[in-house]
């Protein structure tokens, strides 16, 4: 720790940071643009100029850019120096020469970093009297608005998009003040992380397009801490809403998880909450006709149904722990199903067990960024866990650190570090059936069928530890590849293995566990990450239940009177024939969901559930981190949380031991008590009784003026919102707010003088470090404990003996379209492309784009073919759900040419 | 003048065009590379060049031997290193490297082999101004011949040292002449300067140790190695050693460039070599070494053209090729023209340069065209004061642009006032 003098004030500072970070951490208001805590320094904007003095006798000093100057012990600085102030005001004046004065109609207004910095520097009158330059804007697709005239040339967008996230279709064009950031032509931005431009851009060049359509000023919206529901990574978000509708999702910083960035599925997937098709009232289906009924009638009907025999519940990996647990209380553990078919059920249950049994660490995303040898084994994380793939991408930047250290270049000096990185070997190795977005930056990218990848994995483990079983009969090429991978992993001090359930292949995750175990035994700080499919797959695995196949058996034998399905569209899990058979054997079907599903169309009773935005709950991420989301909207009856519906069912069915939960915390406490594996979920977030200075936390920023009157033609008053019992946040601007708020309860970021998301700097203990109020969530899985002797998995698949024309069809999840909830969000739906069948070798006479027929998951399909020469022989790919609804797991198929025009 | 008095241009301007390898050898070429590779260690070459006090001829005047000394000492076989010839001659009014490139490309090649050997770089790159088509053709021909004869390639002269030269014709931005932007451009990326440290000698092209030397600097090397450091020092008239290509453009009788001893007085260059100011014109001021050097007043032309003397007079030697302003050319118009160039050539990376220079240009345009306001002068002074000092902007481009402006504001104060008062350019209307 060093001490620096800022305008005479002694402040502690770390020697591995720059003066800008040190000044901000000292609480000083020093403006900046191009620096970003995650992107480091490049010295482009010249806004953070300060005076540095060479010693106590130096009265002149010299202007330095704080972001480009390393902290040295005893450094004497002045932010207040007149020359430095003049220069900083000058920089804003220069930036403003071309910036339009359109703040009143700019969506960034009120949370604009440029506004804040302009005020901070004191530049308040325009002296540039010439014409401004104008640009032509581009259509960048359904996610992002483009307004280049507002650009101040900080280069953050391209530095994030290209350097950090590996995108290629956004670039800096032209030069001098004609500088242009955009695509080579109009078109949707291709990166999975384009939405971050909204937060990266310090002004209104890149703004949230779906949000513009339902726009509200930051100070007019309520916010609540939430957790993304569109994959298992568990990125922390803030959901903004006004007048009962969700307006947007922005990033909520979590040091160990998503840090500063979200993927586009997470940012734009929330549209399902406002879908017009959403069930908003209980529906009774009588003689095939849906009839809206009251809550009371609904509960009465359920009580009647309950008399017709045992109730069986089917939970969901996209529903909260609470919703699943309440259903489990209704039915009892023996009649509660995970909602997963046998294969996926078995694999999901194995994930926490494997992570516990393997002595390697179970890493967070941030932890993964510093891995120095990474093997991705049979999972396209770029689509199944996009934010995780972004973390893996950062291992490349870290690979430059040794060269940078040798040249005494600090890690935050981004351009120089990346320059050294151009020569550093990539730590990434990717083994997948099809190409992934990580391949171009990987040292090794190998294509093979899942079984063949698993065999390679076992072979690698054996090469690392002779006691691990070897895969027999490897080809020479495979053997060499296994040697190469084992050697690369062995050189890593922090090797990381990533696998997942994408191909529903147990051998893959077992092979990954063997490698991680073997690496751990070599003394390396090894880590194993297993990617689960859904936002609460891990929660379900820890809760436990019976597979759908067991439910089918119960139905067949007449042991189900009423089947209650919570937030699970079984048409995506079971093929039509199987589902028909199940439903035919069940007298009553009750569906509780917040989206319109095909299953609900067949239900006797449909009950409207609250979405993530209207309810509180807990999700367990793929890392085993329990995280709480809180309601930003208090649901209006009859819409209510699934767990409240099932709790009422329990009462209606006159169970003697009906639970008496009146708020979320009580059910959380019951879960923690009843399920030891989930005992720590209480610590995921403070409860609804949390008070700061004796007050609730406010969910809206304080404002001096009135609200923006979007419905003034109806009433100048906003409807006051009711207080939810499940959250310590008030539904208004009344209440306490502090940068010391626990990370799990932050509803928006604001600090005096800092209205944009950049105010986050004030909420952290140190920049890029933990939150001052503590990080959100609670880790449920401890790192594995080393066993006496390594426990090896032995289920090595045999070499493929498939005939050349025998096709294995693999599910090819997509970034957009195959995840259930986000596919219902209009901007995401706009990016979904029709399903194709990807083939490595086309059958004779078939052209790229030609049609083939096949039977898949009980459906007869005709699909266009896409030729992908990189695919290994015998493999075909098809997106799950998009073509055949219930297609999720690999299956052998026969193709027929379809000659119908 | 004997040949050894102007070593750089001795073989230039011969009736048969640039010499081929054999002719170059007959006229004294290749001696230096033989001597360096056979008889000298790389360090001995660096020591000799350091002793010769050769300073960079690109404009900054940094000691060449000293520049090389920062390169890690690994041998070429074990570590990738680069030697880059900066032939991106885009400074307005400067055309000296062109003479060397077109006139005797083998001299540059020999210089590069020596420099490459000194820093133990296996690869050399000539970063050539895009418009130098003739130079490109002659360089490619010379390199091909040198490779065929064995002056380039593996194991030159059996020394174990191998060296290859690649020519890159620039896409054409002034900023590519800035050594770090040049490196970025060579990597195939947008030509933006890099921050230093790390210096190119430590982390240059693709992160590898690299030295960027000006063409004229490199062309001096064969003569230093052949004739010795003392000889080179003795060529200079003052504190700086060697000869220099000096030049003059403007309303003189014989505009051009000449190789003269370092430290030749400015007056001698203008009056003897350029033939003096044309009849009917009077010298008013001049930029001594390119567009990014400060104006010198007509009364200052008795200074010797060496690094120290020109700096003492308030400007920089720069490239050593002067641009003259006469009494019938509007100084505001000239400044506007210069600032238009600098504003247009700003790479757009840092704010003061990207957005400040266009403001300066428009202010000058307004004043020249009769719409200037008295407070415009304050704005111009503000810019010169705030952007002029090094370190305020990312690279030296904007301080270079401010050098003629700051000096011009002082020298031509009356012209500015007249323009604003008359709301017109008096010279334009008088003509």
Note the overall shape of chain B: globular
Structural class of chain A: alpha/beta
Encode the helix/strand succession of chain B as letters: HHHHEHHEHEHEHHEEHEEHEHHHHHH
Distance between the termini of chain A: 74 Å
Distance between the termini of chain B: 43 Å
Structurally, the number of domains of chain B stands at 3
Beta content of chain A: 15-25%
How many helices of chain A in DSSP terms? 24
Number of strands of chain A: 36
Overall description:
- The complex is a heterodimer of chains A (901) and B (431).
- Chain A is an alpha/beta fold.
- Chain A has 24 helices and 36 strands.
- Chain A has a 7-stranded mixed beta sheet with strand order 14-13-24-23-22-15-16, with helices on both faces. A 7-stranded mixed beta sheet of chain A has the order 35-30-34-31-33-32-36, with no helix packed on it.
- In chain A, helix 9 links the parallel strand 15 (311-314) and strand 16.
- In chain A, helix 16 packs across helix 17 (476-491).
- Chain A is globular, with a radius of gyration of 28 Å.
- Chain B is built from 18 helices and 9 strands.
- Chain B folds into 3 domains: 3-235, Rossmann fold, CATH 3.40.50; 243-322, Ubiquitin-like (UB roll) (Roll); 331-430, de novo design (two linked rop proteins) (Up-down Bundle).
- Chain B has helices at 21-26, 31-39, 42-51, 64-69, 96-103, 105-119, 133-149, 179-186, 215-227, 229-235, 266-273, 307-312, 331-345, 351-368, 374-387, 397-411, 413-422, 426-430; strands at residues 82-87, 123-128, 164-169, 210-214, 243-249, 256-261, 283-287, 296-297, 321-326.
- The chains are: A alpha/beta (901), B alpha/beta (431).
- The interface between A and B is large, with 45 and 39 residues.
Give keywords.
heterodimer, A: 901 residues, alpha/beta, Ubiquitin-like (UB roll), Rossmann fold, Dimethylsulfoxide Reductase, domain 2, seven-stranded mixed beta sheet, 24 helices, 36 strands, globular, B: 431 residues, de novo design (two linked rop proteins), five-stranded mixed beta sheet, four-stranded parallel beta sheet, 18 helices, 9 strands, 11% strand
